[in-house]
Amino acid sequence: MLGLELVVLVGLALLLSSVLARRLRVAPPVLLLGCGVLLGFVPALRAVQLPPEIVLLLFLPALLFWESLSTSLREIRSNLRVIVLLSTLLVIATAAAVASVAHALGLPWGPAWALGAAVAPTDATAVGVLARALPRRTVTVLRAESLVNDGTALVIYGLAVGITVGEETLSPGHVSWLVVVAYGGGALIGVATAWLLLQVRRRAHDPLQDNLVSLLAPFTAFLVAETIHASGVLAVVVTGLWLSQAGPRQVRAQTRQQGTAFWALSTFVLNGALFILVGLEVQSAVRGLTSVDLTRGLMAVAAVSATVVAVRFAWHFTTPYAIRLVDRRPRQRLRRVPARARAVSAVAGFRGAVSLAAALAVPQTLRSGAPFPDRDTIVFVTTGVIVVTLVVQGLLLPPVVRWARLPVDTSVEQERHLAETVATQEALAALPRLADELDIGPEVVDRLDREYRKRLRVLRASRGETDDHAALRYEEQYRMLRLAVLAHKRAAVVRLRDERRIDDSVLRLVQSRLDIEEVRLSRRAEAE
User: Would you place residue 1 in the very low, low, confident or very high pLDDT band (cuts 50, 70, 90)?
Assistant: First the structure.
């Protein structure tokens, strides 16, 4: 029954936190983490653990896949150098700095490097939730960094744990081979998985079957990559990016609508549950701390947290100037980011469940049978760093964004308007030819021509390209009337069901079509 009780409590905590987050204007992960800590006081839940396998094999593939599907590949290409440096050299620098601090605090070098590798990568789920309101370029860099840097961290982590346990040897050739397998193997498996799934999707004509293939994509890529000791994270990300480019040409509208709804709800629940489970782990980490007293443990948390933040700030305020000295191209000058914007990116370096999963995955014993040195300290400090970055930096980010006075990013709206305008113009130009090919009568052609020309007038007026206020007023009145008529149609269909003149299955069929039309009208109003 504990599993069912946990599901209900996590669901209630997720609902309550999402409601309070809007009213209090606090980032949802902060409240979710607090709910998890409070749930830890329930005696029946004190035994609940967050198995690292659950994070790495269930939560991580699904969340990374959706993040990569919704990330701009064009922006990644434009900022590729910055992303590569953040996801490799910054991770190595952070892990080295944390390892040095941890060793100074008394940890042997092996466990110290394991701790450094665990807290070095930023968390994709936390960045996706907490930093989504930032300008598109900043968000893309943060998300892409957090999607890729797990691979670097896990290579360092594997070496540190393996050497400590006695299963790995440290040599330049061995380290190079691990990096090649992790990145090269992960990327190749991602490409192969995406290609294979696209072949299957071409033959799946049912939306449910097609979306089942989409659901299998991240888990398949992750499983195959981990089987050959490649980066499962990179395999999932490459799969998602590849499918995001090929999907619009191959996926049918009904499949896409169904899949988007599924992934939006699933990732919302998984994200929330993950933050709550991390909060639950806080008390377990405190109770499991036995090698040092709580005061020294908290001092270690403070020292490591300060190191993680300091290294990230130092990186953002040194490497851009080094790049400017090397790359003097005019194009590079146009892409320079001001100091205040870099401060925002530095504050947005949140740690999350992947760090905790790495800490919990540290083995209990060495090959000799002796206990793994300071394992409890690694788990405690990692948990503390996650709490500090999520809570403190999560609360600091909004005022820092206001202080930075970042320019309003209107590029998405401008490009949306361009896409709709060009699509409508080209559709109008192709209308006579298409009508001839399909042998459509002039009455139908005239009707569609009037609708598209009306839409083009509204698009141009909405951007101030024309003074056609009548078109905007007409469109708004037309939308309001359509929505009112849809409400009456829906009420009539429900009444027929209540009078037992139609079956519930018929009601759902008709209501689905009405819902699609209502959503389309509502989204058009929001976009304009």
Answer: very low
